[in-house]
Specification:
Blueprint lengths: L2 E5 L2 E4 L4 E8 L7 E7 L5 E7 L6 E3 L7 E6 L4 E6 L8 E8 L13 E2 L3 E6 L1
Parallel strand pairs: 2-11
Antiparallel strand pairs: 1-3, 3-8, 4-5, 4-9, 5-6, 7-8, 9-10, 9-11
C-alpha cells in the first residue's frame, strides 16, 4: 500500500524559509515522479513543483520560480520542497503526490497517490 507522509509545515513570517519533506513507502520510489501541490483556503488545489525519477525534469509554477526548490533523495524515499522568501500568498495546505511516469505533469488528475497534507501559514 502506497503511503506518503508530509512534514515540515508551520507558521512563519513573510520572508522566512521552510523545508517540507515527504516520505514515501510501499512503492519503488526511484521510479516515480513526485510533485507538490497546494490548496489555499477556498481555492482549488494547484501545482507547485514536480521532479521526475532521475531528476532530469523539474517544473515549477511561475509563482514560485526562483524561491522554491524541489529535490529528492531516492535512497531515503523522500522528496523535499525548500521554500525561501515566503509570502502570505504561499499560505495553504501543501500536498505531496506521486505518479509512475517519466515526465512531470502539472495536472492534479495525473497523480495516483497523495499525502494528507501539511499546513503552511505565512503572516505579513
Amino acid at each position: 500500500q502506497v503511503q506518503l507522509v508530509e512534514s515540515g509545515g508551520g507558521l512563519v513570517q513573510a520572508g522566512d524559509s521552510l523545508r517540507l519533506s515527504c516520505v514515501v513507502s510501499g512503492v519503488t520510489f526511484g521510479t516515480y515522479t513526485m510533485a507538490w501541490f497546494r490548496q489555499a483556503p477556498g481555492r482549488e488545489r494547484t501545482f507547485v513543483a514536480g521532479i521526475n525519477w532521475d531528476v532530469r525534469r523539474i517544473l515549477y509554477a511561475d509563482s514560485v520560480k526562483g524561491r522554491f526548490t524541489i529535490s529528492r533523495n531516492n535512497t531515503r524515499n523522500t522528496v523535499y520542497l525548500r521554500m525561501n522568501s515566503l509570502k502570505p500568498e504561499d499560505t495553504g495546505v501543501y500536498y505531496c503526490a506521486a505518479a509512475r511516469f517519466s515526465v512531470v505533469d502539472r495536472r492534479e488528475r495525473s497523480y495516483t497517490s497523495w499525502g494528507q497534507g501539511t499546513q503552511v501559514t505565512v503572516s505579513s
